[in-house]
Input
Amino acid sequence: MIDPDVLARATEEVRQATGDPVIATMFQQSMTQNLTAVAERLADGTTFVLTGDIPAMWLRDSAAQLRPYLVLCADDPGLQDVLIGVLHRQLEYVALDPYANAFNREANGAGHTTDLTEMSPWVWERKYEIDSLCFPLDLAYKLWKLTGRDDVIDERFRTAAIATLDLWTVELDHEARSPYRFERHGEPVTDTLVREGRGRWTQPTGMTWSAFRPSDDATEHGFNVPGNMFASVVLGYVEVIATEVLGDPALGARAKELRVGIDEGISQHGTVDHPTYGRVFAYEVDGAGERLLMDDANMPSLLSAPLSGYAAVDDPTYLATRKLLLSPDNPYYYSGTHASGIGSPHTPPNYIWHIALAVQGLTATSAEERAQILDTLRDTTGGTGQMHEGFHVDDPNQYTREWFSWANAMFCELALAHAGRRL
Output
């Protein structure tokens, strides 16, 4: 699905930048196999993308899995067709149910059918996560900018953008306005919402509410700050596309108004004056004074704010937050004999994530730190040559998810960035 000559040139750039044939080989193998193993071109011209080891398409994962291919797609029209096909399928899914996070290839009723929520045969899982709506809008903007093709943005984008803005507007006041409910019985508490599916009580902040985190775990305080950061950025993209492509100034104005309110909410409620680190971003807040200082391994995270486009890598609040996140003051930061990094409540204690390590490298300000993290990724595959979800800091042979397509993609993106090729 990627032109062999394009990949060969990129692989040689990675080899020269790293001076490491093992990293270059891992990069070439992942780029060759990762998309081919998960992407299926359908008769309608769209592309269905498995999340990896689960037979469903996550809106978030299917976009994140494409990031290294976006870096190279300008020189590969065939690859562009595949990526645009992914986008168009995502947009169709959003129109079907903007509260859903994962979908079936067809309306076959597979997935979590016993969840107490408004399921459809198209939906594999209906955990509402703000980032699930951010990623398709982000992908649309990047493809439009990178390719310059007229077929990237069509009426599917307008429909999905309106559905997204409608939902985010409703969820500004979840308590009073939201129709969304979700319960799952007989599973860990992180897989369900309290209060008969409504989630923990929140008070309006200007940010938009999310039931679940990018990890698919329930939010603790409702307003996920990194998710709102990403929402702010993609609302800016909607404003640009509405104005320059769709000729829809009303949609652009709606996006701008919502973005301004979210930004004010982040500033007023999503930041904390920390006695050690100074002004930092919180991970979640409830609007009534409760704030959670931590980070999770999945994107969007606080650590990934520069990748989302919300903060510069040298922004003072981001740098202060980064120091907190990469320290024991983040309860999910772990150190051991083989590695140190950010894990997740989604996996066992002392397991750190390859995704989080890659994000740390991609947001680093020095080539030395990027190179060090690439070496760590190379050395913690447990002998498989593949990235995993989480691995034990003292024994990389203990890991979760032997094959995790998103993590492989993040490794490839970091290798490309180290070679001077990045989004």
Notes: The mean pLDDT is 97. The two ends are 20 Å apart (CA to CA). The CA atoms of residues 202 and 286 lie 5 Å apart.
